[in-house]
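Hey, can you fold this one?
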Amino acid sequence: MNLHVLEKGAVKRIAFVAVLLAVLAIVLAAAPPEADADTIVTAPGEVTWTLDDTGLPTVEGAAGPMPAAFFTGEAAGITVNVIAEAGAFDQKVEMVLAPVYDPAVLEQIAEGVGTAARNVTAIDIAFVNADGEEVEPLAPVKVTLVSDAIGEAARIAHLDNGGIVEEMEAEISGGTAAFESGAFSIYAVVKAGDDDRLLVKFVGSDGEIASMYVKKGDTMGQVIYDPGAGNLADGVFFRGWTTKSNYDSETVALTIADVRAELAVILNTEDGFDWPVVETEDGYVVTYYAMLFNLYRITYYSDVDNKISVGQDSVVFRADDTHTYQSYTVNMPYTPESSEYNFEGWLVVDGINDIDNYENRPYQNLEEINIKGDVEFSVSAPEGHWLVFNENGKGATYVAARFIKSGDSTEEPNVEMKRLGYTFEGLLDDHPGSGWYTPQLDENGEVMLDENG
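Sure. Predicted structure:
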């Protein structure tokens, strides 16, 4: 296979030698021996294996399966420990390691595990026989990788000789990753860290506008440029950016400066990326959507002829909204300039055809209407006078004041006038609006009054 080697060194191999049961019992019962130049201790209380002058375990016999063996070595900052059970190799082998620096290979591995934006450290692991030929174990062997690059979120990947990337089911703990394998070529640690790249996408009405990679430590103002909102249709305006694809007119809009600040916070998160970052086949991605809106303007005039406006309102809705009409609540306070005018509501002076079920009348504040375009209102505040009905005493019938437009005639209220103890005779001419009551007398000629007098 092609090892992608920049440097390559022989790796010390230590083979396990079969030990007699009687000797094993004695060794396990004794205190662990201290290692010297000719021995290696696997762990306290376990067996000590004697090495020959070459640093390799002594192997008895030229034929038959090789006894259990232990291989160790280091490359690219990763220590590799392999334990092979008896029978895993049928000949004497050495483990050879080489770092892999080829960017195309590293990118292929990263893409294979779905984290193209992550940092990858790779090594080529091979077993060679006395003739320098690569051999594979006849049974899976136990592999342990040791490196500071192996954190809780790390992934272990294998790139086989056929170019297929497989993510290994590894047990990761305390800077180690343990797994079993029966095939050896390139293995990699795909890790999270300060070198993580985040793919930032900007999306408009016609799809992706721009995308760019960013990582921790980058100067956001240099890496994240303002992509603009793309080509906008007539009447459509751009409000800002958001990570919410279902944004509405109430959603907070971000400026490009806000986006840069938010990305800096995301990249400095210690526990890995969180929403709005999502993991895709392109790696870790955050998407910002251009907030595109259309609007209808509602203008209120106190003097439509001279275009004197008392206020303006609007209905803002998404540019991709397919509804024909948008709901709007008429609402513009108005105070007449004097008591000789009465505010009756708002008359439509423009946009009649843009109001659903339009009616030729004053529209009242807080009245709901549906519109499909700009609308202009003019105040309805006719001139006239107020007709006030004086009760002329407590306990009499109350009649609300009436506004009489200039040129209109007054009308007597169509209400039965009552006052306990009195008879209503009519409205006084010399005091318009006052009720004229004649008292009702009792048998003694006294006025019959109620408790109010």
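The first helix runs from residue 21 to 29. Let me know if you want another pass with a different chain boundary.
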